[in-house]
Design goal:
This protein is an alpha/beta fold. About 30% of the residues lie in helices and about 25% in strands. Helix 1 crosses helix 2 and helix 4 packs across helix 5.
């Protein structure tokens, strides 16, 4: 039978902050939802050439590989040794006429160090680590739009996004943005109650991207995937 929306799409192992591997089971619905949102927000289509630079063990590879297929864009597979060399990667982006790249801050910095010039129509996505304002400014100088995205593996790659603007960064600093479509983000205290504005808490995410839990780890799934009624 063909897979349904709630059937498993992939399992990616992540250690998170514990150092102990745990497999996150993502479903087809969450992946399709993410790709549809990314395609719309960056107007990805047959005119685009997207470079895939992320190792398959990292969930950023999911949109790297599947977004071009969903949008009818061209997928350019970049060898690992090229992706880790700023000069070679910069040359590849130019020679292959890449129009969209998703990468970590470290890889964007490699490009900047290699004097990558960018193009006026280029779109970039950055995630996986905190982004420094200086890096954001430098990339914004070289492209049409630059998105900062955030999300744990447990919520199907990305949960929040921000199309970065220089004047906002200068005035208020960096932000992870706002929830993507059909996603809710709550800042909760130890009792799973919403924190007042300005009070630190734990980020809790709900919505279409929430995965099926951890592979063969029911106790951990029950601990980390809490039910919606506690938010009330």
């Amino acid at each position: 039978d063909d897979p349904g929306p709630e059937d498993a799409s992939y399992i990616i192992y992540t250690s998170g902050s514990t150092g102990l591997p745990k497999g996150v089971i993502a479903h087809h619905r969450g992946v399709a939802h993410l790709l549809q949102w990314m395609q719309r927000e960056s107007s990805v289509g047959p005119h685009d050439r997207i470079a895939a630079v992320t190792t398959l063990s990292f969930d950023m590879a999911v949109p790297d590989l599947l977004l071009p297929l969903a949008a009818g864009a061209e997928l350019v597979m970049v060898k690992r040794e090229v992706a880790m060399d700023g000069t070679r990667l910069s040359r590849t982006l130019d020679e292959e006429q890449i129009t969209l790249l998703q990468a970590t801050p470290g890889m964007w910095q490699l490009l900047l160090d290699a004097q990558w010039a960018g193009t006026k129509d280029f779109r970039g996505w950055i995630g996986g680590e905190a982004v420094r304002a200086r890096l954001a400014f430098d990339v914004l100088d070289r492209c049409a739009e630059f998105w900062n995205v955030y999300g744990p593996t447990e919520t199907t790659v990305w949960s929040t996004a921000w199309n970065m603007q220089r004047e906002v960064i200068a005035a208020r600093g960096m932000s992870v943005g706002t929830p993507i479509d059909n996603t809710e983000v709550w800042i909760l205290d130890a009792n799973l109650q919403p924190c007042p504005v300005g009070v630190p808490g734990e980020i809790c995410i709900a919505g279409e991207g929430l995965t099926l839990g951890y592979h063969e780890r029911p106790e951990l799934t029950a601990e980390r995937f809490v039910t919606a009624r506690v938010l009330g």
